[in-house]
Structures are given as C-alpha cells and as structure tokens.
Amino acid sequence: MRTGSALLLIYLVLLCHTPALASLAGDSIRQVSVPVGYLDQVDSKAQRLNTTLSKKTTQYLNRMERFEAKLLGKLRTVDPSVDTRLPAGQYQQLEANMQQPVTRAASTYVPGLDTLSTTLRFLQTQPGGLSPGALAQTGASVGQLQSRLDESTLIQQYITQRKQELAQLISQYTQLPPGVTQAFANFKQTAYYYRQQVEQYKTMLDEPTKMEREVVTLLSRVPAYQAFLAKNSLLAALFRFPAWDGGSLQGLQTQNQVQQLLQQQVGGNGQAVQGQLQAAQSQVASMQNGLSKYGAGGQDLDMPNFKPNTQKTKTFLQRLEYGANIQFGRSSYDFPATGDLGLSLGYKLSDNGSLGVGLSYNVGLGTGWSNIAFSNQGLGLRGYIDWKLWKTWYVTGGYELNYMTAFSGIADLRDRSAWQPSALLGIEKKYRVSSKVQGNVQLLFDALYAQEIPQGQMIRFRVGYNF
Asked: Is 328 strand, coil or helix?
C-alpha cells in the first residue's frame, strides 16, 4: 500500500472516533444556562496548573543544569578544555521563556484543554449571558496555560538535543573519571521524570470536572457550538478540516461514509476496505503501545536498566493512601474477646513501598455467643512501613503503643504507664479488589508480646483494605 494511502487510513480512523455533529437548527445559546461559577472554576484550574507547570519546569531545569555541571566538572580534571567541546547550555534562557507570554500559534494538542479553549471562544461570540470581562480573564488564563505547554514541548526538544550532545562528548574519552557515568544517568533520569510530569498535567486536563462536563453537554445541544468546535478547535487546525460554509451540517463521517471514501481513494470491495480499516487501527494501537513502553518518542531506549518511580511525578495528596484493617483476639477467663479496628494514613515512598501512621480501637465483644457485650477495651497508636518483596508479597513492620486497659473516658488515657509497646514484623499479601481499592492480609510477629500485661498475642492476623 502506498504511503499516502496508509496515512489516509490512519487519518480516517481518527475521524471515526470523533463524535458526530447534529444538523444545524439554530445559532444561539439563549436556551442554555451556563452554571454559575463555571468561569471561576476554569480560571482557577488554569492558573493553578500554569503556576505548577512553571514551578516544576524551573526545578527540573535546575536539577539537569546541576547534573551537567557536575559531569563537566569531573571531565575538567582530565581535560581542562572540555568546555570548548560543548555548546553553552541554555537553561537560564529556557527558564526565562517559561515566564514570558508566547504569541505564536498553539502547537501542543491536549483534548481537554482544546475543548476548554474553544468553548470559551465560542461563549465570547454570544451576546448576553456571561460577563465579557470574566470571559476574557478566563480565556487569557487558558491561553497562557496552552503557551506554557507549548514551551514545555520546546524544552523537551532541547533536552533531547542536549542529551545527545553530552553523550557525544562523553564518547570522546576512553577513560572517564569516577562519577561521570552516574551524573549523566541522573541527567537522563531527570529528563525522563520531567517529560512524565508534563504528561501527568495533560492527563489532568483530560479529566474534566463535573461542571465542565455539564457545560459541554448543554452546549452540545446547540448546533452553532458544534459547528464552531469543528471549525475553530486546535484539532481542526492541525488536520485542516474544511470550514463550514453555513449550509446543512449533517455530521462528521460515520463508519459507512468512511468506508465509501476509502473505496474511492484506495479501491476494493467492502470487506477489503473493512480489513484495511482494522489493519490501520491495529497499527495505531501498536504505535501507542510502543510509545508507552519506551517513553515519548522512544527516548528511554538508552536507559534499559532504568526502572522509573511513578510516584515522583505525583503531588503529595496523590501519594497518600488510606487504609482500614481488623484483627480479633480470643476471650480468656478475665478478659472478653476483642476486635481491633484500625485506620491508617500512608505515604507512598515509591512504587515498591510506603510508610504511615495509624490509630486503632479495641472493642470488647463479650465472652461468648450467649454473652455478647460491647465495651471499650483499649486504644492504639501505630507506625508502619511496607516494602515489596516479590510481585504482590510485601515485608511489613511497625511499632505500636497500645492502651490495653478498659476505659470509660478520655481522661483514663492520660496515664502514660498504661501504654505498652509492640514491635511487629511479618509478611503481607496484597490483592486488587477494584481499580481504586486494594485488599491486604497480614501475618505479624510481636517481638514484645511477653512483656505486655496482660500477655499479648504473639502472632497477629489482620485483614484490611487500602484506598
């Protein structure tokens, strides 16, 4: 198949996934009520991401500049003229560019941001309703965010070029001073994390809030909005969609229309066209899988042993995990059976481990099925750490302080001598319950069980969930 035909197939596959537009029946949004607070929410979101992206970009550029300076400093010990072999760095200029307004046309396509920007421009063309000043302010914030993303794309291109220049420089030396290889590895890893950080921000933009979805849903009922989106969005500019001529717009190509167009362009019967379309879809999926495996543009092929920590590009709140667990204790002659209910708050250090704190409540259940009675039997303060051993198996340990005496009020807990320590170590099995819930089973050994009064449990079995 000719190259032009292959490109046409992929282009038409993309069109197949574009929602169909309804027929034109009007050109006003008077019948649509945009929710109060929509502009404030969008403006706040855009300004927050713009500030965060600029701050993170500066941090990553400073790190890469330090690693490069360290690398060059090591090389100067064996070659004082090393600076003449490498073009001067542009990190300071790149940082300055992130703070300057960008007047060139947008070039980085983010579906969610494109929808926001085009929607705001459409609302600006409609008389009445929203405040022109508020619309202009929100539009400027969204436009600035688009500019920052465009600038980040240029920065990534420069980083790729700089990485190649450093690799070429290092290759000129047969014996490298200690530390050069590690400094270059740190440079490349920082470049990787910056790219992933930018991709995370793009993903956040592709996850609209409830109000943003509501506005787009309402406006989608207005044919004029549909036509404006098809004509003025960044996607339309990138693919050069033909402008709407004011006539009847029946909608973008359906599957049947695409097949008919393919028949005209590349020939073949219906089954052959369908097969070609499926083949093109497979090619697109294959390319996406390849990029996901090796990073954007395949730029991580020179780090085959690098295992990225996906937690590094997440915010503090995104790295928190919430948990709950329960364990039971048998009744004895003097004490009732108990249920130990625990809550925890953890922080993910990496994809392999986390640490956290927790609080437990020991509730008395009575001495048997015929004598069930609830009572306050104790409280506990916990600290723990989990670390992956293999697949879904973890080693877990922790230190706890337990108030193991029945109490009737908070005042009873002030007796420090009644709090007894526990040192726990064991194994943990984690399993997936849903996309957001993870179950776990723990088997723990208490090294201080013999010192507890009354003597505690040597082996503790806990079942819980993390969110």
From this structure: strand
320-329 and 419-432: which strand pairing?
Answer: unpaired
Encode pLDDT of 93-119 as tens digits: 999 988 887 666 778 899 999 999 999
Q: Which residues contact 337 (CB under 8 A, 6 or more apart)?
A: 328, 329, 330, 331, 364, 365, 366, 367, 368
Around Cβ 446, how many Cβ atoms within 10 Å? 20
First to last CA, the chain: 50
Query: Domains (ranges, CATH) in the chain?
Result: 19-251 (no CATH), 315-466 (2.40.160.20)
Q: Distance between CA 121 and CA 135 in Å, rounded?
A: 8
Contacts of 466 (CB under 8 A, 6+ apart): 321, 322, 323, 346, 430, 437, 438, 439, 440
By residue count, the chain amounts to: 467
CA distances from 445 to 323, 397, 418, 448 (A): 20, 9, 22, 9
* Three-point CA angle 28, 30, 31, nearest 5°: 105
Rounded CA gap, 318 and 425, in Å? Answer: 27
* Band of pLDDT at residue 283, cut at 50, 70 and 90: low
pLDDT digits (tens, 9 = 90+) for 41-81: 999 999 999 999 999 999 999 999 999 999 999 999 999 99
User: Position of tokens 């009675």?
Assistant: 373
Residue 207: how many other CB atoms lie within 10 Å: 9
CA 7 to the chain's CA centroid = 31
Higher pLDDT, 334 or 170: 170
| pLDDT score for 35 | 86
Residue from 230, 228, 242 nearest 122 by CA: 228
- Of 111, 108, 102, nearest to 140 (Cα)? 102
The average pLDDT across 326-340 equals 69
Distances in whole angstroms, Cα of residue 287 to Cα of each of 144, 160, 185, 307, 372 = 31, 20, 27, 21, 63
Rounded CA-CA distance 44/145 in Å is 11
Q: Is 266 left (phi over 0), alpha (psi -120 to 50) or beta?
A: alpha
- Whether the CB-CB separation of 147 and 185 falls below 8 Å is answered with no
Please state the pTM of the whole predicted model: 0.76
Question: Six-digit token pair at 3?
Answer: 């190259």
Amino acid at 455: Q
Pick the closest to residue 212 from 64, 37, 332 (CA basis).
37
Which residues lie closer than 8 Å to 137 by C-beta, 6 or more apart? 39, 43
For residues 337-365, one letter each, b for 16 or more C-beta atoms within 10 angstroms of the residue's C-beta and e for the rest, the string is bbebbbebebebeeeebbebebebebebb
Asked if 313 contacts 200 with a C-beta cutoff of 8 angstroms, the reply is yes
